[in-house]
Amino acid sequence: MICTQVDENRLNHVQPKLAHLAQLIGNTHLVGVEFLYRGRPRVIYAKCEQWSLTGSIKDRMAFHILKTAYLEGAIGPADTIAEATSGNTGIAFAALGHALGHPVRIFMPDWMSLERTRIMESYGATVVPVSREQGGFLGSIRMTEELAAGGGVFLPRQFSNRANVEAHILSTGPEIWMQLSGEGLEPDAFVAGVGTGGTVMGVGTYLRGKNPKIRVYPVEPAESPTLSTGCKVGSHRIQGISDEFIPAIVDIAALDTPVAVSDGDSILMAQRLAACLGLGVGISSGCNFLAAVKVQDELGPDAVVVTVFSDDNKKYLSTGLLQEEPVRAGYLTPEIELTGIRVIPASRSFAGEDRAGLAGWPRAAQTATCSSGDGI
User: Fold this and answer.
1) Are residues 32 and 71 in the same domain?
2) 128 domain-assigned
3) N or C: which end of the chain has fewer CB within 10 A?
4) Is 284 annotated in the active site?
5) Do residues 241 and 195 make contact, with C-beta atoms less than 8 angstroms apart?
6) 302 shares its domain with 203
7) Same domain as 67, residue 49
8) Distance between CA atoms of residues 150 and 144, nearest Å
C-alpha cells in the first residue's frame, strides 16, 4: 500500500469545481428507439451519452477516477495527467484535467480520427501520436509509464483501474434501472461494446445485483474479435472498442457470449440514426444498436434490451461515417426501418443528490489516504 498525505487545503479548493463538473456529466436521457425489423415493431433502449459534457460516456469514468484520486491523495496539485487512449477518454481527461488545473498529456495511436486530436488540443492537452511501428495502443500505454517514471505524473490507467468500473456501478447502472422502473419495465439484457470494459462490467454488476438473471453481452467488431480469440486479430473501423487486447478489468467469464457486428453495418446504422431520427452518434453506437437487435432476436422480440449511444458523431467527420458505405450480404441495417423515439428523461432524483460524491469533505478524505500499488 502507498499512503499519501492528503492536503486538506487542496481538497477544499477542488471540491466546488468537482461539484459543479458533476452536474454536467451523466444523468442522461434514455431513449426507446422504435423500429420495424423484418416488418415487426420493436423497441431498443439506449442511454444518450453523446449529451454528456464532452460528448461521450467516458466523462463518467474520467470524473470518477479523478475524484477518487483526490480523495486518496494519489494526485498532486501540479501533477500532469497522462493517459493512453483511442480518443474519448483523452478528450474527457483533457477537459476535466484542465478544468481542475492540471496539465494533460495524451498518447494516442496515430490512425485515430483527426477530430479527436483537435478536440483534445482545444481543451489545452498535448497529444503525442504513436505509430504502429512504435507499438500502437500498447506502445501508448508503455510511453505513459515511461513518462511517469520521472515523477510528477498521475496515470489514470483506465484499462486496469477499478474506479472505471465503479463509475458505472454508481451512475450508469442505477440510472438505467430507475428510468426503466419509472416506465414499469425491467431490463432483460444489457449490451455494450468493449473498449476498456468499464461500461459493460460496471452496468452489468449493478443490474445483476438487482436481478441475477439479467444477461450482459460484450460487443466486438466482426473484423477483429479480440474478446473471442483472446488476442489481436485483424483490423476494424469502430474507433473506441477492441483496442488490441483484453483489458484487465474485463472478466470474460462473468459475461455472456460476445456479440460480433461488422464495422460496415455499424457505419450504416450510425448514418441512419442521424438521418432518420436526428441522433448524431458515433460508429460504436451504431454497432451497439445492431448488437442489441441481435440479442433481442435471441431473447424474443418483446425483450427489454438496453445499450448505450457512447458518443456523438462530431469526432468522425473525416472517417467512413460520412462516406458512402456499401451494403453487404448479412448486414442487418437494410432490414431495419427506424420509425421514431420515445424519450425517458433523466432521473430527477439523480439530479438532486450529491452526484459528485463529495459530502463530508475533507473529513471523508482523512479516512481515504491509502492507495494500492497500481497508483490509485
Assistant:
1) no
2) yes
3) N
4) yes
5) yes
6) yes
7) no
8) 11
Q: Are 294 and 261 in contact (CB under 8 A)?
A: yes
The closest alpha carbon to 262, from 232, 284, 281, belongs to: 284
User: Residue 2 domain-assigned?
Assistant: no
315 is annotated as an active-site residue: no
Catalytic site residue from 56, 113, 242, 284: 284
What is the CB neighbour count within 10 angstroms for residue 178? 16
Cα separation values, 250 from 162, 197, 246, 255, Å:
10, 6, 7, 9
pTM of the model: 0.90
**153 and 171 share one domain:** no
Active-site pick, 52, 56, 58, 86: 58
Domain count along the chain: 2
CA-CA distance, 44 to 64, in Å (whole number)? 28
The conformation of residue 278, written as its DSSP 8-state character, comes to -
pLDDT 10s digits, 216-245: 999 999 898 888 887 777 788 888 777 678
pLDDT, tens digit, 9 for 90 and up, residues 18-59: 999 999 999 999 999 999 999 999 999 999 999 999 999 999
* CATH number, position 117: 3.40.50.1100
At 358, list the grid cell.
Answer: 463529495
